[in-house]
Design a protein that fits this description.
mainly beta; 5-stranded antiparallel sheet; two-stranded antiparallel ribbon; 39% strand
Length: 142
């Protein structure tokens, strides 16, 4: 047992010497509310003329979860990726047909000198946050 513990310790020392900087973030939004409807609303009638109380998904934003990350390759170059899936919190179904990560699924290379190249299913440019741009230049600031 002592030999195994010693070998594991030595192996862990060697593993830390080749560790690269990487980051993976799990994020998401859960947004729902309760919707009350009596039989006299303009939304439509309820069953048997009784009031209805139900879960209503997406009050302010659509429900989603995702993974976003990067891996340093060295020399100022890194790989980047983002996988994002939308779902209905009321019943668990996907917001869009066609797979799990249907909101965004992309990967790319980023370099401090040459910029960023990405490919895959990405958000439209009009939905990207404007706050990432500097007031003085058209280039992203962060």
């Amino acid at each position: 047992m002592k030999k195994f513990a010693g070998a594991a310790f030595v192996a862990s020392l060697g593993a830390t010497a080749v560790h690269a900087q990487s980051s993976v973030t799990l994020y998401g939004i859960l947004d729902s509310g309760l919707m009350y409807q009596n039989n006299g609303t303009t939304v439509g009638s309820t069953a048997s003329g009784h009031a209805s109380l139900k879960l209503s998904p997406g009050g302010w934003a659509l429900d989603r979860f995702g993974l976003k990350g990067n891996e340093e390759l060295g020399g100022g170059t890194r790989t980047i990726f983002q996988l994002e899936s939308g779902f209905n919190i009321a019943n668990g179904t996907s917001q869009f047909a066609g797979g799990m990560f249907t909101r965004q699924a992309w990967f790319g290379l980023a370099d401090d000198k040459y910029g960023t190249l990405t490919g895959g299913r990405q958000a439209a440019g009009s939905t990207l946050p404007i706050s990432r741009c500097s007031r003085h230049t058209a280039r992203p600031s962060g």
